[in-house]
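Local shape tokens

___
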Amino acid sequence: MIDELVEANQSERRSCVVVLADRDKVSTEEQIRLRVPRTGRTRVICRSGNPLKRADLELVSPDTSKAIMVLPPTDLEADTMVIKTLLVLNNRAWRSPRPHVVAAVQDSDNLAAARLAAGEHGVVIDADDIAVRFIVQSHRQTGLSTVCNELLSFYGSELYIRAEPSLTGVTYGEALHRYELGTPVGLRRTDGQLLLNPPMDTVIGEDDGVIVLAEDDLFIKLATRHPARIVEEALACAEPPDLTPDRTLLIGWNGRVPKIIELLDSFVEPGSALDIAASHRPAADVLGPYENLTVGYKPCRPTSRRSLEALDPGSYQHVLMLSDESTDAEQADNRTLVTLLHLRDIENRLGDPYSIVTEMNEDSNREVAQVTRADDFIVSSKLISLMLAQLTENRHLHDVLIDLFDPAGSEIYLKPATRYLKSGAKANFATVIEAARRLGETAVGYRLGAERGAPPAYGVHLNPPKAARLRLTEEDHIIVLAEEE
């Protein structure tokens, strides 16, 4: 979190991050130095105190802060402590304009209470619900987690909302080619209505804000000369999407499984199947019935090679592996690593590839797990932290980020590049934007299949230069905002 805030404020002359925690000040400072050795122009100050006590809160001078972030501790009563802290902040006598407050709760049932405690100056996100959305959408299109990491991080490109009076009366589709730097993804109306990837004939109003993906707000620039040439001969004829049912194998169990199944049922085609492979049989209500999905159960010990082979993983298109909540985070990740190695070796022997998307607890373990060549890793805690950091800098992005991962409306998809460009044809990203525009979609980047195993971007290129030469093949994907697959 501190690393992201340091990056976000690198252009500021002076910035400061103050940490209040009920732990030893020297130990906290040492942990931060180990993980964030360089803080640039940003000072990091630590104070030892209990955030639940009004007197201790005064140690960090809340009146002089730009924003306040309330993080859930690693405790069974985490949400209770977050709600109490929000109450203390909301009932404090402020001597200056009140800063906005951002927080997260782990249990969806506590969201309403937390928002009430935070008041009108607070933004509270439902970490559990967002994690479920990440998991479901990522398992159906590998690489999405990597896209979200870059989109939510201050390293690379992020989202901004800014007015462009010169675009008044211009349609959204026309505006896609009006930017020299930055990529439009939607509009915010004067009444607060958000339109991500709106219909291409939507007219931009005088006071509308344009939602733009850019490296920095200083790097948003309208074109002052002719835009990059559209290479018409490189455009492909889009094939209709494959709407056949699919089969998914879910290995492991945690408290999010019922929500994962409910959300997955809203995405898949009728006749799709999901088999839960776990050591204990789920409750009968978890197994259905559902509208589009048939849910089954197979007994399994995930770290056992023989048990995994008995599942016949080659008969599935997708394998989704969840982290075990019955043990500590490190031990759960260790078991995940063993299971991943077994699954990859089974796939190599079968010669029938299936995608493997894995939930991890620690980002450091995700880096170790790269040797397993899993298709994607989801570190929910990191993605939630990145979202909170974004909201600390701009609370108005809350509705945009929530809308991005909502099944209703437009979401992020990685679609085959050959849907937009002829394989191997010489083109540029402006041509990709035009190809997507004609399909009612907004292109924001691409992923190169040849680089999918190369950190840190793993082949993902967001907001690339419009005129840069581009030659994509069947291995590559275009990253778009679209209504449906």
Observations:
- The first strand starts at residue 15 and ends at 21.
